[in-house]
Write a structure and sequence with these properties.
about 425 residues; elongated; alpha+beta; 4 domains; CBS-domain; single chain
């Protein structure tokens, strides 16, 4: 009986150890180990090396695990037959299989997958010992592995995709490592370069611009009542922009008593215009702003027409959310109502609405950038108050217009069976 328990105990303990070490080795992310290595954690550096050259540690772990199972099963079977006869061999085999499944597979691998952070040091040291103990088998299996498979260069197959990082961020939030705001900020950074200039710009219908024909007094009155500090100066239309005027530059010139009024040249204080194609990504726009050291651009469509303006403030808001300027009223573009419908500004970017409902309802790669653009394009007619459109599982209803422009929608989530597009 003593030998029976000895065979059983050793087999379960060794196999338990092998399984938990294997689970930690495979569960610990390469990126985490690399970060810990840079902070001077030696065990993480060692475990990272084992992940890169994984054939040796796996050979040692699996070989030792197989030997433990084989010797343990043979020893237990022999002792049972010797002590009780062959009549009980089948029952003992079934019981041993159950014990191996539960105590050497399910439990240790669950522990390793859940607590790998706390077991990095233990795992690195144990693997090192296993490789030493099983060295002859490790050498032979590594040679066979190299012979039968084409081994990649060291670290060549270690890569992390954006989706994997998103999952890691979600896991960190669920585990309390990141709070919801930090998690949202990280995700916004990933989404940032997916946005094009036409997604983030202020549409030309909402742009405040100065006509070069205006008097200094008219310009002064306009600037004093505006919430903005930078303005395009145009000749007749936004399509003919002469330059960019800064509020402070204008008032320095306006209040310069050393110059007669007819000597004050507005064109002389204008900054050069930066033109931004509507299809440029957010990162490219930011790069242009940094290179030019100016942070205000005129967005052009494929025909060279001015369709809006984009600023550094617009880029920052896409990452950080609404950043009201001084004196700006807090009038959100999307308001969720008590009945779970949404009161939506027509010029709301489709990316903002998709983010609000946490679902890409409106395709973000479409040629239109706003909810009203999507509605008008899908309706295929000039909209009017009361027009409705059912798209997928949402109903869009126009409730306010200004001329031919949609000011406000009510967007309502419908029952699942009401799908597709209806007018």
């Amino acid at each position: 009986m003593t030998l029976l328990l000895t065979y059983l105990g050793l087999a379960l303990i060794i196999s338990f150890l092998c399984s938990i070490v294997e689970s930690v080795l495979l569960s610990a992310p390469y990126s985490f180990l690399n970060m810990k290595e840079e902070s001077g954690h030696k065990a993480s550096a060692q475990l990272k090396d084992y992940k890169i050259n994984i054939d040796k540690p796996l050979s040692a772990i699996l070989s030792l695990n197989t030997i433990a199972h084989t010797v343990g099963a043979a020893g237990v079977g022999h002792q049972v037959t010797h002590a009780f006869g062959s009549a009980y061999f089948g029952w003992v085999s079934a019981a041993l299989t159950f014990l191996i499944l539960v105590f050497t597979e399910i439990i240790p691998k669950t522990i390793g997958a859940n607590y790998w952070r706390k077991m990095i040091g233990f795992t690195a040291g144990t693997i090192k010992l296993m490789i030493v103990v099983m060295y002859p088998i490790v050498i032979v299996s590594s040679w066979l592995s190299k012979l039968l498979t084409k081994k990649s260069k060291q670290g060549e197959n270690i890569s992390i995709t954006e989706d994997e990082i998103r999952v890691m961020i979600k896991m960190a939030q669920n585990e309390g490592v990141l709070d919801s705001e930090e998690s949202a900020l990280h995700n916004q950074l990933f989404n940032f370069n997916d946005k094009k200039a036409h997604h983030l710009m202020t549409h030309r219908t909402d742009v405040e611009w100065i006509n070069i024909s205006m008097t200094f007094e008219e310009i002064s009155d306009m600037l004093k009542t505006s919430q903005h500090s930078i303005f395009p100066v145009c000749e007749g239309t936004l399509d003919n922009t002469l330059g960019i005027l800064r509020n402070k530059d204008f008032f320095e010139l306006y209040n310069d008593e050393s110059l007669e009024d007819d000597k004050k040249d507005l064109k002389g204080i204008l900054d050069e215009v930066i033109y931004i194609p509507e299809t440029l990504t957010s990162l490219k726009v930011l790069s242009i702003f940094k290179e030019q050291k100016h942070y205000f651009g005129i967005v052009l469509d494929e025909y060279g027409n001015s369709i809006g303006v984009i600023t550094l403030h617009d880029l920052a808001e896409d990452i950080l959310g609404d950043l009201p300027v001084d004196g700006e009223e807090d009038d959100p573009d999307i308001v969720e109502r008590p009945d779970n419908s949404f009161f939506v500004d027509g010029l709301t970017p489709i990316t903002d609405f998709n983010d609000k409902i946490d679902f890409e309802l409106i395709p973000e790669e479409s040629e239109f950038a706003t909810v009203s653009g999507f509605f008008t394009n899908t309706l295929n007619a000039l909209p009017k108050v009361g027009d409705e459109l059912v798209y997928e599982s949402y109903r869009f209803e126009v409730v306010e217009m200004e001329g031919n422009r949609i000011e406000k929608f009510i967007i309502t989530k419908l029952e699942e069976e009401q799908g597709d597009v209806e007018e």
